[in-house]
Design brief:
heterotrimer, A: alpha+beta, 3-stranded antiparallel β-sheet, 3 helices, B: 2 domains, two-stranded antiparallel sheet, about 60% helix
Chain lengths: ~180, ~425, ~260
């Protein structure tokens, strides 16, 4: 419309306004068609999970589902806590103190998703390989995590993430 | 026909190897179009745009829809309630279907009035009829997907039409259903086909446009283009005119989508499908009503079904039923009247299709059905022989009759195909 | 002059489907009187007070038999409830969850993301508890009935003595607006059957009106968003189309 290839139609204001209005309209229509792919209201409503950790005994680990992904809850032994807190931060690819990763040292809560490419690391059940540092081992590409869920060896770039959670009572945590 | 000059060197590089830009220039920019097209000629490109709107909104809905009898209704409600703008996309798609048929029906009646189906555009017309049939199949299967009461019983009744076929009818119906009633297998295959057919329509639309561009558009005078003085380039003249028409269309569509979104639907389809209970009054969507009226008008099951299919099928042979050499009704005094009578007949059939099949409605349906076929089978061939057309203008640029011409223009000069691009 | 024909065409097509639609509407039931709702019309919005009262009627009267499957507790924010209030409401209900680690289903108190608990576990139980009649789910009532909210109001306030000569079968009740006039649901509302917190007098008509409005919301919680957006979209489209029209006139000025 605002084209003047043959030089006979003038590129005057009204044509520019028309094309602008058309383009603006198309852009506005695009948003609902993109936003529909974002999480729907019912999906967002499920984005927090509550869990009673009192049933998890020392040395035990459970996996619960939060936002469709596993969350590892591990009741660590004294020895595991000690190992995790005595590591020199300089030795870590992604340095972070164990105390910064838990709100109660014995109860470790982690997002059970390998930070490399999203597999679920092994180490939750007693018979699983736990890797060289006694934490978790990702079978997809061989990442080793320690008893604080920190990356020690392998291709994963960062430590297992700690999901946002808080204790809403003495034994119940709310994740998300 | 000039070779386009492109300023951008990348465009030139590509065009030399893949002449897509030259093609677009010829077919969408320079494409010579009769300069006297009226607004009724907007509905062709408008139908194309509505098809795009339907496919885009449909793909979005498919991202959230679940084709299972236990989840379909619920997944549609999730789209309406929880998915971001899901209600908007679904209302566009549901009402867009109705508007698609409004646009296409106007497009068809435009063709009927101005004789656009006549030589050399017979295949163009027939491809259009194929598109109409594909649209009907797509719309029918789409209406089944929400799995409401009307979905279910519409699917039951329409698929049962095929049971009218002698000997193999029952087997065909079982084949269509994938079971012994409309059930989960039926819903799944309808979903698969509802997703497929729009792209088949796109393919036929491409052929429709290729056939159109062979001889160019017909025009309100129905006479052939005599030279460059009769045409203007498609761009910017018809692009801006189509844009304006699209604007008007979008205003009407938006008014319905935002303020009367359920006015063209049926309340029963907000009740989940129940195979044990048929709704008191089952009615197809409005765009099927004339054909539904014809189906019910014939007291015999097989012949009713045949009549319904024949009502669409007769459009295929229309170019050979109407042998009059004059295209436009403007110059056919009797046909012009009969066109409007036929239109009223179609509206009457639409109205009767929604009425219960009892009493006076049955009689009226039969009369209107009989007239529908009378128009095509008897009236049009007879008019071709007996009607005396008015004198045709010499050319589009000279719409005023040449005083010496005396009707010599009545003899149709064969149209020349467009020069090969 | 230029678009008169097009407009005529559209009007004609509109008449075609409105005629056929009107026929559908007249085919079932009894014509119902139109009510004046705050949510009707182009700029209509819900009255939060009305919705909350209607919710109370649903909760205390209807919910005994009728499910509301497509509404979750979290949706009550639309009615003007705060998140904390919704948690309290949800806590009044028990929902089944599970299986737990032992493989057993268990009940727990509801949370905002739960859908409204149904009164019966399945349709057969609902029939068994209601003389064989199935109380329909109410989440889509306004769209699923000809006449919408007007019909619901008419139905709920339309219980009278059967007129002379009208047979009413055993276990059925006379209703002026129900198709066939015989309905399996006894009049659910009584004067002062609920006690409104805002002091509104709970007459039958008032309750019928409130709960009809509530169900209109439940049917389409996005209605207000739809209408608000619609006004903006229409204004934009009219301006855009006007510009297109002027452009068209300019470009076509030299065509004769």
């Amino acid at each position: 419309m605002a084209d003047d290839n043959d030089g006979t139609t003038r590129r005057d204001f009204i044509h520019v306004a028309s094309v602008t209005a058309g383009a603006l309209g198309a852009a506005c229509v695009a948003w609902p068609f993109i936003d529909q792919m974002n999480p729907a209201a019912d999906t967002l409503a499920l984005s927090s999970t509550e869990f009673d950790v009192s049933g998890v005994e020392e040395g035990m680990a459970v996996s619960i589902v939060w936002r469709g992904k596993p969350v590892f809850i591990r009741h660590r032994t004294k020895k595991e806590i000690q190992e995790a807190s005595e590591v020199q931060l300089d030795d870590l690819p992604d340095p972070q103190a164990d105390s910064d990763r838990t709100s109660r040292p014995e109860m470790l809560v982690l997002l059970g998703v390998c930070t490399h490419l999203g597999c679920v690391p092994l180490g939750q059940s007693a018979t699983d390989p736990k890797g060289e540092w006694g934490g978790w081992f990702c079978p997809c590409h061989g990442s080793h995590y320690d008893t604080s869920g920190r990356i020690r060896k392998g291709p994963a770039p960062t430590n297992l993430a700690v999901p946002p959670y808080k204790y809403i009572s003495d034994s119940v945590i709310k994740i998300g | 026909m000039s070779e386009p000059k492109f300023n951008n060197s990348l465009v030139r590089w590509i065009d030399h190897r893949l002449p897509i830009f030259t093609f677009m220039h010829h077919e969408m920019h320079e494409y010579p179009t009769p300069k006297n097209l009226n607004y009724w000629w907007n509905f062709g490109s408008l139908a194309g745009i509505v098809l795009v709107i339907m496919i885009m909104s449909g793909i979005v809905l498919a991202m959230h829809y679940t084709a299972h009898v236990d989840h379909a209704f619920q997944s549609v409600e999730r789209i309406m309630r929880d998915v971001n703008y899901g209600w908007l996309v679904r209302y566009i798609h549901a009402n867009g279907a109705s508007f698609f048929f409004i646009v296409v029906y106007i497009h068809i009646f435009r063709g009927l009035y101005y004789g656009s189906y006549k030589a050399p555009r017979e295949l163009l017309w027939m491809l259009g009829v194929v598109i109409l049939i594909l649209m009907m199949a797509t719309a029918f299967m789409g209406y089944v997907l929400p799995w409401g009461q009307m979905s279910f019983w519409g699917a039951t009744v329409i698929t049962n039409l095929f049971s009218a076929i002698p000997l193999v009818g029952e087997s065909i119906v079982t084949l269509l259903w994938g079971g012994f009633s409309v059930d989960n297998p039926t819903l799944n295959r309808f979903y698969a086909l509802h997703y497929l057919l729009p792209f088949v329509i796109v393919g036929v639309v491409v052929l429709h446009i290729v056939a159109l561009h062979r001889f160019g558009s017909n025009n309100p005078l129905g006479i052939d283009v005599r030279g460059n003085q009769d045409t203007i380039s498609f761009h910017p003249y018809y692009t801006v005119k189509d844009a304006f028409g699209l604007g008007v269309f979008l205003i009407l569509l938006s008014a319905v989508v935002f303020f009367l979104p359920n006015s063209m639907g049926h309340p029963d389809n907000y009740i989940p499908a129940n195979p044990m209970v048929t709704p008191a009054h089952i009615v197809p969507e409005w765009y099927f009503l004339p054909f539904y009226a014809i189906l019910r008008a014939v007291p015999d099951k097989l012949f009713g079904v045949l009549a319904m299919f024949a009502a669409i099928g007769v459009l295929f042979i229309l170019p050979w039923l109407d042998r009059s050499p004059v295209r436009s009704a403007t110059f056919r005094p009797i046909y012009k009247i009969m066109f409007w009578v036929f239109l009223v007949d179609c509206v009457a059939l639409t109205w009767l299709g929604a009425k219960p099949a009892e009493g006076i409605y049955v009689v009226l349906s039969r009369l209107c059905t009989a007239y529908y076929f009378f128009h095509f089978i008897i009236l049009l061939p007879a008019l071709s022989i007996f009607e005396t057309p008015k004198s045709l203008p010499k050319s589009i640029s000279k719409p005023v009759l040449d005083p010496d011409g005396g009707g010599g223009g009545m003899i149709a000069v064969p149209a020349a195909p467009r020069e090969k691009a | 002059m230029v678009s008169a024909k097009v407009i005529r065409g559209f009007l004609f097509a509109s008449v075609c489907f409105l005629v056929s639609n009107g026929a559908v509407k007249a085919a079932g039931g009894v014509p119902v009187p139109q009510q004046d709702w705050t949510f009707s019309g182009v700029f209509g919005t819900f009255d939060r007070g009305e919705l909350q009262r209607g919710f109370q009627v649903y909760k205390e009267v209807c919910a005994g038999c009728h499910s509301l499957n497509y509404i979750s507790f979290r949706n009550l924010t639309d009615l003007g409830f705060k998140e904390e209030e919704i948690k309290v409401i949800a806590k009044e209900y028990e929902v089944e969850d599970g299986p737990n680690n032992d493989g057993d289903m268990f009940t727990r108190t509801a949370i905002p993301s739960d859908t409204w608990p149904a009164p019966y576990p399945n349709d057969n139980a609902a029939r068994a508890g209601n003389n064989g009649a199935l109380p329909p789910d109410l989440s889509l009532m306004v769209d699923a009935r000809v006449g919408g909210a007007d019909y619901l109001y008419a139905l709920l306030s339309g219980y009278h003595e059967a007129p002379e000569g009208q047979e009413v079968a055993e276990g059925m009740y006379y209703n002026a607006y129900y198709p066939g006039h015989q309905i399996a649901m006894p009049s659910p509302l009584v004067d002062d059957g609920v006690e409104y917190g805002d002091g509104t007098k709970a007459t039958i008509n008032q309750q019928a009106r409130d709960v009809s409005a509530f169900l209109a919301w439940a049917t389409e919680p996005n209605m207000e968003q739809r209408k608000r957006m619609g006004v903006k979209v229409l204004i934009f489209l009219i301006v855009m189309t006007g510009l297109f029209y002027v452009s068209k006139r300019r470009i076509w000025a030299d065509v004769h």
